[in-house]
Amino acid sequence: MQPPEDCARNPWASAALNITQLELMRAMRSCGSDRVTGLSLPGASASRTRPRCRPFKRSVVGDGLVIEQLPSFAMGPVQVLTQVWSLTRRLLGRWPDGRPDAILVANALSRFVSPALLAGWWYGIPVATIVADLTGVQPGQPPVRRFRNWLQTVMTRLSPGTIVFSPHTATEFRRGKPSIRMIPPPASYLLELLQPPPEPAAHATYFAGSLSESTGVDLLLDAIPFVKDTTLQFWFSGRGPLEDRLKQQAATDPRIRFFGFVSEEQYSDMLQLATVLVNPRPSRLLENRYNFPSKLMEYMAAGRPIISTATSDVAEHYGDAVVVLDDETPEGLARCIERVVAAPAEDRSALGARARGAVEGVTWRTEAEKVLAFIETLRRGSRNP
Fold first, then answer.
1. Residues 258, 367 within the same domain
2. In sequence order, what are the beta bridge partners of 38?
3. CA distances in angstroms from 321 to 292, 296, 307, 340, listed in the order given
């Protein structure tokens, strides 16, 4: 995790994941935790990032809330080694504010989980891994990637407790070990939005998030030429590896508008201005089976109609609040967009209201209370093996 201003300047950072971690930290503090300290090793491309040497940086982001960026060196395997060393040294070293009562790991990568498991054993305190996404080993992957993904599944199995976003992670990798499902609520400012009027201000579809194959940006771009409505705009915001392709297609199709990385205010405005919001994550990708799209919760808070694939457990939990895309082809997505856009305003408004109702009452405080209760069960379990 990073302070919001640092995340906005880091092109390799996930804004959604950063918000998730910061919101959870704040909620745990509001639930009575004396201090919540985040130990951060910001992700970056080891071959392109500058500067290569990342020094220690301590940021106070709130009362009792601290983020410590641990030192690392971004250059190939050296990056991994320095991250492991920095995290191990920090967890097993001196704690000026007192030893932690529990350790939460927000990433199932072995470089983060292994030092945490060692520290948990050394201190005799509970450790839980938040598994927001999990790729798993797949045929055809390069050997190094297969090994890395296998290590992720091993860390998920070894962790004393897991907090999962998708129940498939618990049923297929935990084998009955302690686990809870956390629902990633929308950011606090999105929960304060009012239900928008039935008629949208703009005749547009909107996609926000990482511009990558896993989020379905290529599927949406392939679908646009099949949409016959020449007045319908297609809005995109975010950043990622498919940004160049998006810009190239936007140069030849005036209906496509790319806004880049937008502020919170711009994002919330665009969510409510658009006619329909699109979550096109391909369900065929194994990683999407174990990765609940937290962006979907933000879409629902906006109160606009949503088209979503049946990725993770979306259809099971939110099938009556979103339009589930059955035909995940460019033609199928185009037809679905045209059908939703052409629906009567009152029908679209009712669908948006159901989506908003599905997230009302799900806050970071309710999820933090759930996490803290889970940690307490892990603590009691370690005392009574």
1. no
2. 67
3. 16, 11, 10, 13
**Where does residue 137 rank: exposed (0-12), middle (13-18), buried (19+ CB within 10 A)?**
middle
Strands 36-40 and 65-69: parallel
* DSSP run (H or E) holding 111: helix 110-123
In 3D, which of 182, 204, 192, 210 has the Cα closest to residue 303? 192
Paired tokens of 5 = 């201003």
What pLDDT sits at residue 383?
Answer: 62
Q: 333 and 371: one domain?
A: no
Residues 34 and 140 in one domain: yes
- Cα 69-186-11 angle, rounded to 5 deg: 40
Q: pLDDT per residue over 241-265, tens digit each?
A: 999 999 999 999 999 999 999 988 9
221 and 253 together in one domain? yes
* Among 226, 224, 212, 277, residue whose Cα is nearest residue 255: 224
Contact 65, 28 (CB under 8 A): no
pTM score, whole prediction: 0.85
Structural domain count, the chain:
2
Nearest residue to 214 via CA among 144, 137, 133? 133
pLDDT tens per residue across span 9-49 = 766 666 777 788 888 999 999 999 999 999 988 655 444 55
Residue 183, pLDDT above cutoff 60: yes
Is the CB of residue 196 less than 8 Å from the CB of residue 272?
yes
Query: What CATH number is attached to the domain comprising 156?
Result: 3.40.50.2000
DSSP for residue 224: G
User: Phi and psi of 380, rounded to 5°?
Assistant: -65, -35
What's the average model confidence in pLDDT over 301-315?
Answer: 94
Domain, as residue range, for 130: 4-185+363-383
344 and 378 co-located in one domain:
no
Residue 114 tokens, joined: 């292994």
The amino acid present at 255, given as its one-letter code, is: R
